[in-house]
Amino acid sequence: MIAIDTVLVKLASRCNLDCGYCYVYNMGDDGWKGQPKRMAPDVVRALAAGLAELRAAQGTDFSVVFHGGEPLLAGPGRFAETCGLLRRALPRTCGLHLQTNGLLLSDAVLATCAEHEVGISISVDGPADVHDRHRPDKAGRGSHSRVMEGIRRLRAHPAAATLFSGVLAVIDLAADPGEVYDSLKDTGAPGIDFLYRDGNHDVLPVGKAGPLSTEYGAWMCRLLDVYLRDRHPVPVRVLDDMLKLLLGGVSRKEGVGLEAYGILVVDTDGSVNKNDTLKSAFGNADRFAVEWSVATHDLRQIVGSAEFAAYHRAQRPSAPACLACPDLKVCGGGMPAHRWSTRNGFANPSVFCADQQRLIDAMRSHLARNRLAA
């Protein structure tokens, strides 16, 4: 049985923002339309029972991440009930986490997070002009001021030091990396993470001229320079992970390195699916052939199945160019969704391969200048 590391729980299948780059709603997959708007109480109970059995069987902890859509659209009452059920079902050592756009971070929600030790990560792309360019609400209005109000409310909470886990930004190539870093640092977050825009070999990420171009790598190199010059930096997860890998360490999250993470996604109807970033490759790419559900299937049998094992293996790259690359241990082949092409399936290098190589080379130069081995 494959050990599960992360369980993404879709408490709500809709969102109160209309982010232009969203892989759930704006990259061609419309599976969300057939999902209940919120996870029903009986599904939550079945999920809690199944996760308790899974945790006991594998003997190691996993993190439960409330995801969406916007998970807080489930409502503060449903959110509190869900946290309570999971806390009673799982050991306290299993982390509970909330990935939110911050608009619905009310005092009631924060009280629930404090009671059940739920870490909160907030999506914000940088200064207002950068953020609002891509993250408007359904009426087309910018959301930055409301996100910042949510962050201020979180920081004012007595338990803020343990609740606030970080901010997450999607890269905008038109934005200045230094200004973005400074604005995210000013949020008071204890950590920052960055994501590339989703895309693949058939549909290139916004801003990339071709698979061999390095627009994203150049942006990340500029960010790296800013980060390494900062005398009081806020940790940037993706940069730290790659630097550690160059120095012989290990990564903490999927996307870089060769660690294979066991990831389950549970949608609002209780169906068990693959990593939902695969939606950006083609319609239903995140679906298993077997229609599994927490309401009708044993999670232990699901993660012990041949189909789940094949999905888990697919995290590792299979393209000959990747397998022969000396930097595979650092880049890890990137996210599976970014390897897709109609011609070769997922057996390609990442569409960001050249970008990552440029960033790795820049990191090696920094390490060499500081007389550190790489």
Automatic annotation (TrEMBL):
> What's the protein called, per UniProt?
Radical SAM protein
The record's listing under PROSITE patterns reads: MOAA_NIFB_PQQE, RADICAL_SAM
Q: Which domain of life is it from?
A: Bacteria
- Which InterPro entries does the entry link to? Aldolase_TIM (IPR013785), MoaA_NifB_PqqE_Fe-S-bd_CS (IPR000385), rSAM (IPR007197), rSAM_sf (IPR058240), Sulphatase_maturase_rSAM (IPR023867)
Q: Which cofactor does it need?
A: [4Fe-4S] cluster
Signal peptide span: none
Keyword terms of this UniProt record: 4Fe-4S, Iron, Iron-sulfur, Metal-binding, S-adenosyl-L-methionine
Instruction: Supply the NCBIfam families for this chain.
Output: rSAM_YhhB
Instruction: Cite the Radical SAM core domain residue spans from the record.
Output: 1-229
Q: Give TM segment ranges.
A: none
